[in-house]
TrEMBL record, chain A:
Domain CBS: 7-64
Transmembrane segment boundaries: none
Cited SUPFAM superfamilies: CBS-domain pair, Nucleotide cyclase
Keywords attached to this entry: CBS domain
Species lineage: Bacteria, Bacillati, Bacillota, Bacilli, Bacillales
NCBIfam families in the record: GGDEF
GGDEF domain ranges (all copies): 142-269
Source organism superkingdom: Bacteria
InterPro entries named in the record: CBS_dom (IPR000644), CBS_dom_sf (IPR046342), Diverse_CBS-Domain (IPR051257), GGDEF_dom (IPR000160), Nucleotide_cyclase (IPR029787), Rev_trsase/Diguanyl_cyclase (IPR043128)
Signal peptide interval: none
Annotated protein name in UniProt: GGDEF domain-containing protein
UniProtKB/TrEMBL annotation, chain B:
Official protein name in the record: Uncharacterized protein
Species in which this protein is naturally found: Brevibacillus gelatini
Length: 269, 118
């Protein structure tokens, strides 16, 4: 989803010579908590409800506004906007299309859209998130480790202990994966039922350690859980960047299935 | 008992005090508190409108004072850092965040030279 689909095409603006109390009145009228400050057709700053609360109402907007203005492009997607707002600690951005101001977007609107891509059970993002990260890395030619993590015997856990308990396992296991992913600056999602995908740019040795840790049987809620991890190493894989995201995810999931099959074989032999 | 003959009137007294408006009204310098009703940019615009190119606004990092507006001619006579040090030392004792102080600042040069007689 692109920013142009969710942005507000109306720019709520004020000029810098107006009073702070006038800005507060406009914010209340427009039901907005920020106004773009425009002088002679040029964007010069941003005044927020916080500025209005802290500045004397008699001051002019020029003395209360923040000069730092954030810009995003209309064809950028919501994940890029989400990351931008987080990294820049911004709350509002002006949208440019063909170098012209075409609208504005707030962090709240982006967050609301992003929330739709969150899995309510695990609190992790769903598959479209990891696809966005993967595709943007591929586009920028940034190599990465792709890990497809598939819980072993999860169907059996559901059958033996009931689905609510299975949900608890997913929730707890997600929290464990999430903390490890955060430690190495990785991106994690719940891909489907008991499958997770992680993208990491950490050094090989650390990723190997991580795979070893996940594959090892671990006690979760008084039962032992393990996972089969399919790994595609973008740093050593030949022609890594010639593959599409779809091909890479297929490769990683097949690798995970192969490990599972291997384990099944060895447990019967 | 009140009859029709009673008189009711309302009067206003007008009082005028006329004096010359000094241009500019802010003398040599203005010290602007962080929460003053008029901020540095408004002060700069006012000074620029009343006396173009005669004042300079200096924003400063101080807990109570946000900026100082200074007459350019003073800055030409004295080192800016030394001047600001003196202004801040003297004004920070009486200014609060919500105040704007104005001040007259005159520099008088006193010279005494000793020369050899021919």
């Amino acid at each position: 989803m692109n920013i142009s689909e969710i942005m507000n095409p109306t720019i709520y603006s004020i000029s810098s010579d107006k009073s702070v109390s006038h800005a507060a009145k406009l914010m209340s009228e427009y039901q907005m908590d920020s106004l773009v400050v425009i002088d002679h057709g040029e964007v010069v700053g941003l005044v927020t409800s916080r500025d209005v609360l802290t500045a004397h109402p008699n001051r002019i907007v020029a003395d209360a506004m923040c000069n730092e203005v954030h810009y995003l492009l209309a064809d950028q997607n919501i994940w890029e906007a989400h990351h931008y707002f987080l990294n820049e600690n911004a709350r509002l951005a002006i949208i440019l299309e063909d170098q012209q101001v075409s609208g504005m977007i707030t962090k709240e609107i982006v967050d609301m859209q992003i929330a739709q891509y969150k899995d309510p059970l695990s609190g992790l993002y769903r598959a479209p998130y990891i696809q966005f990260i993967g595709e943007s890395y591929l586009q920028k030619k940034i190599p990465f480790h792709l890990l497809f993590i598939d819980l072993n015997n999860f169907g059996r856990i559901n059958k033996q202990y009931g689905h609510p308990f299975g949900d608890d396992v997913i929730r707890t296991y997600s929290a464990v994966l999430s903390s490890v992913a955060e430690d190495q600056g990785g991106h994690l999602c719940r891909y489907a039922g008991d499958e997770f995908v992680l993208i990491s740019t950490a050094p090989d040795a650390l990723v190997e350690q991580y795979i070893e840790l996940i594959s090892r049987p671990t006690d979760v809620l008084d039962i032992t859980v393990s996972a089969a991890v399919g790994h595609v190493n973008g740093y050593s894989e030949p022609d890594f960047f010639s593959h599409s995201w779809r091909e890479l995810i297929a490769q990683a999931s097949l690798a995970s299935s192969a490990i599972k099959a291997q384990r099944m074989e060895s447990s019967f032999s | 008992m009140f009859g029709d003959s009673s008189v009711y009137s309302r009067k206003a007294t007008l009082s005028l005090k006329i004096s010359e408006f000094e241009v500019p009204p802010m003398q040599d310098l203005l010290i602007i508190g962080r929460k003053a009703p008029i901020g540095p940019e408004a002060v700069r615009r006012m000074a620029e409108a009343l006396s173009p190119e005669q004042f300079t606004l200096l924003k400063i990092d101080h807990p109570k004072i946000e900026a100082v507006l200074l007459r350019n001619s003073i800055l030409q006579m004295m080192d800016e850092k030394l001047l600001m040090k003196i202004i801040l030392e003297e004004s920070e004792r009486m200014i609060s965040e919500s105040m704007v102080l104005r001040s007259e600042l005159k520099i008088a040069l006193s010279v005494q030279r000793e020369v050899d007689l021919l």
